[in-house]
Amino acid sequence: MSVASIVRRVWKHRIPIGAICIVLACAAVCYWRMPVSGTTADGTTTVVLLHAGTGAFSYESDNVLLTFLRRNLPWLVGRYLPDWISLKRCPPRNLAGRHKLQFLFSDHEDLGTGPARGRGLRPRMEFIDSTGYVFRPPADSRSHRMHGYLYLGYDAWPRHDPVVHCRLVNNINGEVVLKFNMKNPDYQPDSPVWSPGPLPATARDDELAVTLRGITIDDLGQATPELTIEPLLPSDRPWKTTAWFEDATGNSGPGLCPMESAWRLRVDAQQGTATPHGFEFFVAPPLELRKRAESVLGRSTKTPRPPESSQGAGNSKVGVRTDQSAS
């Protein structure tokens, strides 16, 4: 068969071949855009991932057709359309000044067979790092549910891994509803290494002495500092303190990884509306938390990176640094 005859046959059947190519292209696009979704074991709740990232984003639930129908149908008919939602988020930052990780899910329940909306699924995100340790940070204060949608924001996740392994867990029964991986939007491969100091440790300025006696850990691995505040000058006004942990990769909050060489505890103490006094402590992650992680993994996790000198770590020789912000 000559080349000319092949060309003539293809040209003769160009319309069916073109239609087949279009169908295959549409199928490929649909498969590529297939959403990440999961359903609870009882089949009552379906969750679909709509957005994951650190930057600003906006989301509109209506497509072109729903927008047209919502504007032109009478109210008695239009009220049966799906709930409409418009969400805009600026890139929020955590207490360490780094971007938060944001998720938006659609959260639809079968109200005919399942419990009332919001009761069948109490979600939390977990992140598994390269050591096998599971981050279980609390969601930030802006996380909420709204008309079948779920927004979650987090201050801590494995920033030193190029890929973030995520899973959505039902807090009611511990069921993993959804698993997915994503490229790390705030990858920190070369973070500094901090040197921890001994406990108890005391930091002071002209008005106040703050002592860190230790760190307590709850069942979810959330850390709470044990602090003692001692005023050095007589005053009738009470001191209010705010404390949070940070790691060298830019995470903040109570749910940090115990495989780091040190955490930094920041303490702000304030009287009324006066300028707060700032204090810093560099401490080793609690040994109890590391042992707990190793027992869950069934093996010894990787050894934390050896601390650098005090100059390289940017802290004092005893692992405590104070910053007096008030005169």
UniProtKB/TrEMBL annotation:
This is Uncharacterized protein. Residues 298-314 have a biased composition (Polar residues). It comes from the Bacteria. Residues 293-327 are annotated as: Disordered. The lineage of its organism: Bacteria, Pseudomonadati, Planctomycetota, Planctomycetia, Planctomycetales. The chain crosses the membrane at residues 15-34. Keywords: Membrane, Transmembrane, Transmembrane helix.
